[in-house]
């Protein structure tokens, strides 16, 4: 774990999840997405001690446990630390089981709950809700850009050094190679967020799971690769229908086979939700239609 300087007062710590550090002054800082609970947070605290940095706040880009899971642990070490997030990120961070209600549509198995507790432990209160647009916090300006799609509450956090922390809006090259797609809560919103982020001219961009950060010259290409991958994913799903009428889980099976995805209980529900979002979007755009004539809901491509 290493602290890398990006620009001005903006730093980041590399890892499975990249954590932002913004120095308010010589000794106080803000943490952006601390990461999962456990060893990572212990190492993060040691690193902050090494640099004699006191975190006054945590900013959360979105409500996934690999980004906000370590909040409770930090609150136990830094008693006055404050938490900031969008309205929905605050809601899902404070009510973590809601994620599973929307993944499953109702009661969920204990196995799923145990899965989340490994990296989350306990919830925290997010007392500070970001305004969309400019926020002045501890006398410093941060631009908060709503980027829903990956999650309902997703935002990009831009420091006054014009460094943008985009959470999981963009998929790293490595994840693209392994998975081919990423978790999407709302296909249409995600597409709009990708288009929106193109309009900004950041000096640097830090992505949630990339092994590097991106400079001005690389950002546009990186975003475009994500737009292309997103279009590919959609076209792949349409092609996988092959003139058949398919149930939700039949489409999912074809997607899992096509991308060679590893399937576990909780992950299966995540994949299922991605397909649900894609089906809804394709229906709304008139590309898919449905049939329940034999009392089974099946989808088909309208004009193959
Ligand atoms: Fe995420």
What does this protein look like?
This protein has two domains: 3-230, Metallo-beta-lactamase, Chain A; 241-301, Arc Repressor Mutant, subunit A (Orthogonal Bundle). The protein is 41% helix and 21% strand. The chain has helices spanning 39-50, 65-68, 71-77, 87-94, 98-104, 110-120, 173-178, 187-198, 216-240, 248-259, 265-284; strands at 3-7, 10-13, 19-23, 28-32, 54-59, 82-85, 128-129, 133-137, 140-146, 155-158, 163-165, 204-206, 214-215, 288-291, 298-301. Strands 1-2-3-4-5-6-7 form a seven-stranded mixed β-sheet. Helix 1 (39-50) links the parallel strand 4 and strand 5. The longest helix is centred in the last third of the chain and has 25 residues, at 216-240. The radius of gyration is 20 Å and the shape is globular. The model has no long low-confidence stretch (mean pLDDT 94). The structure holds fe (ii) ion (FE2). Residues 62, 64, 150, 168 line the site of fe (ii) ion.
């Amino acid at each position: 774990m290493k602290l890398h300087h990006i620009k001005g007062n903006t730093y980041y710590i590399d890892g499975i999840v990249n954590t932002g550090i913004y120095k308010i002054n010589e000794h106080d800082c803000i943490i952006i997405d601390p990461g999962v609970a456990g060893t990572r947070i212990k190492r993060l605290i040691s690193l902050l001690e090494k640099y004699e940095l006191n975190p006054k706040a945590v900013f959360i880009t979105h409500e996934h446990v690999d980004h906000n899971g370590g909040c409770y642990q930090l609150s136990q070490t830094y008693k006055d630390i404050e938490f900031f997030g969008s309205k929905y990120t605050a809601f899902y961070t404070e009510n973590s089981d809601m994620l599973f209600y929307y993944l499953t549509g109702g009661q969920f198995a204990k196995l799923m709950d145990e899965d989340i507790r490994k990296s989350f432990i306990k919830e925290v209160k997010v007392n500070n809700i970001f305004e969309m647009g400019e926020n002045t916090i501890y006398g410093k300006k941060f631009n908060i850009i709503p980027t829903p799609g990956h999650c309902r509450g997703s935002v990009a956090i831009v420091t006054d050094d014009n460094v943008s922390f985009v959470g999981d809006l963009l998929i790293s090259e490595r994840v693209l190679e392994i998975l081919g797609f990423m978790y999407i809560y709302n296909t249409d919103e995600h597409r709009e967020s990708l288009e929106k982020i193109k309009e900004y001219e950041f000096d640097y961009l830090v992505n949630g799971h990339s092994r590097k950060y991106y400079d001005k010259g690389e950002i546009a290409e990186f975003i475009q690769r994500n737009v292309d991958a997103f279009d590919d994913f959609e076209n792949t799903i349409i092609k996988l229908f092959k003139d058949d009428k398919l149930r939700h889980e039949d489409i999912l099976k074809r997607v899992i086979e096509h991308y060679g995805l590893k399937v576990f209980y909780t992950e299966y529900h995540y994949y299922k939700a991605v397909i649900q979002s894609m089906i809804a979007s394709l229906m709304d755009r008139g590309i898919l239609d449905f049939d329940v004539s034999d009392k089974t809901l099946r989808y088909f491509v309208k004009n193959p």
